[in-house]
Amino acid sequence: MKRSTFATLMAAFCLVPAAPAHAATIWDGDASKGTGVFGAVLCSDPASLTHQDDDGRGEVWKVNKPLGLERCEAHDIRVGGTEYAWREGAAYYLGWDTMTNTDDAGTIFHWKSNGTNDQHQQNYPVLIEVEGGVLKVFHIKVGERWTLAWSTPVERDTWKRVALGIHTSSDPSRGWVEVYYNGRQVHSFTGRTWDDLGNKPRWGSYGAEVVDNRVINWMDGMKVGTSYADVS
């Protein structure tokens, strides 16, 4: 018996794969969710990563790095209870609000390479500092060759929105970084952004130069996605 036209059309339709859903935000690091959103908290006592109420914002993260210590950082992200699997050849966007109590907060973000010592060629390919009242975005090439990619004066105790687009590649001609500040793209550059064992983000306060400073870095609206719209 000849198959009906309707049945033929339905069979063809079933063979067409469903279009994938839009990949929205990968990670939402809202402070109300607790420190389990991070892969690890790298804060030695009495340093701490806590959350507190902020008028008009609700819960925000508070990184407290006391005198005498050089680090208090949130390391990596967890999605669905497990550490996220970052990969080479992908474009990631990371966005967050930051406010520090000092003009010299040290490194507030770095795209940290996995491994130690001779296990990596770039300790941190991308790094953001607050130094002397200036927010600075650096690209660090193989061999600890630092390049100041972009900078802007900032005020302490004032919120600002920072976002980075990072295309991960160990090939300097294929990796790229986009820099966004307070809602607009302010810079972009190409270069190696993926080290031998891969990379993960860290946020907080870090650096030998801030051992004698008490640094508080408040953070809010922390997101990771695959487009700027996901984290803006």
Describe this protein with a few key phrases:
single chain; 232 residues; mainly beta; Jelly Rolls; eight-stranded antiparallel sheet; lyase; Polysacc_lyase; Heparin lyase I family protein; signal
Description:
The protein is mainly β and 232 residues long. It has a single domain (36-231), classed as Jelly Rolls (Sandwich), CATH 2.60.120.200. The protein has 2 helices and 16 strands. It has helices spanning 5-15, 228-231; strands at residues 27-28, 38-43, 48-54, 58-65, 71-79, 82-83, 91-100, 106-113, 126-131, 134-141, 145-153, 160-167, 176-181, 184-190, 199-206, 215-225. This is Heparin lyase I family protein. Residues 1-23 form the signal peptide.
In a few lines, what is going on in this structure?
The chain has two helices and 16 strands.
